[in-house]
Design goal:
126 residues, 3 helices
Length: 126
Amino acid sequence: MQLTARIIYPLDDGIAVVIPSGELPLEDVAAKDVPAGTPYLLIDASDLPTDRTFRAAWTADFSAPDGYGIGADAWFAARAAQARQPTPPQPSGSPESPEADPPPPNTDPEPLTESHLEEETDNDHD
C-alpha cells in the first residue's frame, strides 16, 4: 500500500486527505501531518471516491483508527530530542567499542629482502 497509500482524518466539514511524498515512513507522515489527538486511517488511493464534487460530504468510520496524530510541533520536537540522545555504548569486544580486544597479531611471514638473502648466504659459509 506504500506507493498508493493515503492518510485520511476527520475535519469539521468532511475528510482531509494527505498524500505522502515517500520521503518519510508513512507512520511518520501521519503522526506529523495529522493534528494532535486526531484519529487517522491509512487507506489505498483506490478506496477514495473519484468524484470530488461533494468532497465535504465524505465520511469514514474512525472508531478503530490506525493511529492518532501528534502534530508537526510535537513531531519535530521528538525528532530533535531523539537526535540529542547519546548513542548507547557498544558491548565490549565489538569493533565499535573503544575497549575492544586488539586484533590478532599478524602471522603472515615477513617478506624476504636482500638483507635476508645476504644473511642466509653468509651463514651458509660458516
